Amino acid sequence: MELHVFKDGEALSNAAAKFIAGHIVATLETTSRYTIALSGGSTPKRLHQILAQSPYKEQIDWSKLHIFWGDERAVAFEDDRNNAKMAYDTLLNFVPVPASQIHVMRTDITPEQSAVEYEKILHRYFDNTATSFDLVLLGMGDDGHTLSLFPGMPVVHEEKLWATSFFLKAQDMYRITLTKTIVNRSACVAFLTAGTAKAHALKEVLKGAYNPDVYPSQVIKPTGELHWFVDEAAAAALKDA
């Protein structure tokens, strides 16, 4: 695990963009496609905007990218809470990724159907590969959750399914999510975490006892690289750990 600490969210976003672009370029030197799972939440918005501008817009061969999502809220695509809508509004409408290579978690069908459909897509891509995604981008909530793996939910421990859905009573909505099983097969995972509100959870996830029912981000232990891009505010409590 590598921890990268930056002054603020803007510096974090710029560093993450440079890292991602470099990882894409390096990976495509030896393969014909690059698979990436995007994250929802507030932190990736600025990252997307940076990637959609020079120099990265020209540096990245967008035609070889295959886009996935880590999780989705079961709300209409037009709803501002929809993770795919955010990615289109900030990145995908501005770069030439072929539409057939963008795999949204559908919300125009039932959450159960959506998860089953996504599972099939994932198996089509990754059944015969040593690793799954080339890169998974993740965020972490103030409560230590990542993807739609929330504290105390059975999905945290899912071992078989690669994608699943469930009703989250606390938010009164269904969620569709990848599981640790597929994410932990990734070649690289990068968490983007910013803000004072994340400080306590970050300390517990990285330095505390292993208790994924309380801090689900702890279940993310990829076979490949694991990077945490954090700002000084989020990292503040680590100094005492």
Description:
- This protein is α/β, with parallel strands linked by helices and 241 residues long.
- The protein has a single domain (2-240), classed as Rossmann fold.
- The chain contains 8 helices and 9 strands.
- The protein has a 6-stranded parallel sheet with strand order 1-9-8-5-2-3. Strands 4-7-6 form a 3-stranded antiparallel sheet.
- Helix 2 packs parallel to helix 4.
- The longest helix has 19 residues, at 9-27.
- The radius of gyration is 17 Å and the shape is globular.
- The model has no long low-confidence stretch (mean pLDDT 97).
Protein traits:
241 residues; alpha/beta; 8 helices
Structure summary:
The chain has 241 residues and is an alpha/beta fold.
Topology summary:
Layout: E1 2-6, H1 9-27, E2 34-38, H2 43-51, H3 56-59, E3 65-69, E4 71-73, H4 83-92, H5 111-126, E5 135-139, E6 163-168, E7 173-178, H6 180-183, E8 188-193, H7 199-207, E9 225-231, H8 232-235
Parallel strand pairs: 1-9, 2-3, 2-5, 5-8, 8-9
Antiparallel strand pairs: 4-7, 6-7
Helix pairs in contact: 1-2, 2-4
Main-sheet strand order equals 1-9-8-5-2-3
So what's the CATH class?
A: Alpha Beta
Mean pLDDT equals 97
- Count of domains: 1
CATH topology: Rossmann fold
- Mind telling me which CATH architecture this is? 3-Layer(aba) Sandwich
How are helices and strands ordered from N to C?
EHEHHEEHHEEEHEHEH
